[in-house]
């Protein structure tokens, strides 16, 4: 599969059942996440398709540490020299190459199946050195600016990134969009994960990209609010209470 344009300046790069995102900026190219191991050729082909050389990739930002987001990172950095960025809570695992933090499957059939198929926390990948850290509320002065939003739950150091120039949110694994909007395959903390979903539902953006599933190019924050906004969660909890009382 080849990279596809999502909005002006953003291309989704399929990297083995996971997505990376290539962003064009005045300061070069920025890549968000690095997919499963041995998928670096997809990034290199996407760069070439834009008429750029590999040294135009200046920044590699990670939403979090799991192997489907850092798997090809070492190979990409080796070929491009890109500067790497990650939340401090996830850096030790990225720089050791694993093992990864265990998580529990999401409370759904899809989560149960996918967690068993794709996640083994004992796996290891080539370690990648992290050059710079970021924290919640920080503005990364890259490609017109990314607002950093800490979104733990799937893992402790996960972040979402709101690209100011294109009004696009890169949500990592706060959720996914495989068969409609839904939970990620698993959670380290379900309570934190639900809070992070409500957090991004309170933001304003036009487009959103997930680590898994199709990006949404228009009216994305409206759809996110309907799924994970406060009112939606209250209705969900009320349905659960009614089922338990029956």
């Amino acid at each position: 599969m080849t990279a596809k344009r999502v909005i002006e300046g953003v291309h989704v790069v399929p990297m083995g059942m996971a997505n990376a995102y290539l962003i064009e900026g005045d300061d070069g190219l920025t890549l968000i996440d690095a997919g499963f191991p041995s998928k670096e050729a997809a990034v290199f082909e996407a760069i070439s398709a834009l008429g750029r050389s590999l040294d135009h990739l200046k920044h590699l930002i990670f939403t979090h540490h799991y192997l489907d987001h850092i798997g090809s990172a070492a190979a990409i950095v080796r070929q491009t020299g890109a500067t790497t960025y990650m939340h401090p809570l996830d850096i030790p695992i990225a720089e050791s190459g694993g093992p990864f933090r265990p998580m529990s499957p999401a409370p759904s059939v899809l989560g149960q199946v996918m967690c068993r198929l794709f996640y083994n926390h004992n796996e290891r990948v080539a370690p990648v050195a992290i050059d710079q850290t970021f924290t919640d509320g920080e503005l990364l002065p890259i490609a017109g600016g990314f607002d950093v939003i800490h979104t733990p739950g799937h893992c402790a150091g996960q972040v979402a990134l709101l690209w100011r120039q294109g009004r696009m949110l890169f949500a990592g694994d706060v959720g996914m969009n495989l068969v409609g909007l839904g939970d990620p395959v698993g959670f380290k903390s379900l309570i934190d994960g639900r809070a992070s979903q409500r957090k991004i539902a309170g933001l304003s953006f036009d487009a959103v990209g997930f680590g898994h599933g199709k990006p949404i190019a228009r009216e994305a924050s409206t759809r996110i609010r309907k799924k994970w906004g406060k009112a939606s969660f209250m209705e969900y909890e009320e349905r659960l209470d009614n089922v338990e009382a029956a």
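The mean pLDDT is 92. The radius of gyration is 17 Å.
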